[in-house]
């Protein structure tokens, strides 16, 4: 996640949704005095101290912190004040991108597990073991309600992020980072294994308006 008191925004970074590119644009506005930069598990014992004293936290601890965790870190009045946003992605596309990302990074904590499945289809049959959370789980509050003000989509990223930058008064320029070219994600699925994604990430399809029927 990325938070700026100065620009009044909170970006919830859901994995494999172009968050690295977005953070590269927003980072200059979240590293000044009075700003908490990246917040994660290791900072939870110090949040109130950091917020009240206006310390600048520049080290990345956990860029994928959830909104629910932030409710225990930032004051509710501050969460209500700032503009909160995220980007989501078609679950079929995101799952395949996640698979390729892990296999291209041997130091990833899930590399050995996913490699052991032997194929993308093998991973899909073991989604509960892999345990990659739903996208919705990153942006709900303690009452399980979606708590961001704007949900952009990976499929319309340029337009959606441009709208965010205009609202925040930030010059718009979105570089491509942490990306790789790969075949159409639809070609990675067969007539059966797409159903694992449709079931496991059902709440993402429903919450964000994606079509579960991959074969349409």
UniProtKB/TrEMBL annotation:
One of its GO terms (molecular function) is sulfotransferase activity. The keyword rRNA-binding does not apply. SUPFAM superfamilies: P-loop containing nucleoside triphosphate hydrolases. One of its GO terms (cellular component) is membrane. GO terms for biological process: carbohydrate biosynthetic process. It is a single-pass type II membrane protein. Signal peptide: none annotated. The keyword Transmembrane applies. Keywords: Glycoprotein, Golgi apparatus, Membrane, Transferase, Transmembrane, Transmembrane helix. Pfam families: Sulfotransfer_2. It is found in: Golgi apparatus membrane. Its main location: Golgi. It comes from the Bacteria. InterPro entries: Carb_sulfotrans_8-10, P-loop_NTPase, Sulfotransferase. PANTHER family: CARBOHYDRATE SULFOTRANSFERASE. This is Sulfotransferase family protein. It comes from Cryomorpha ignava.
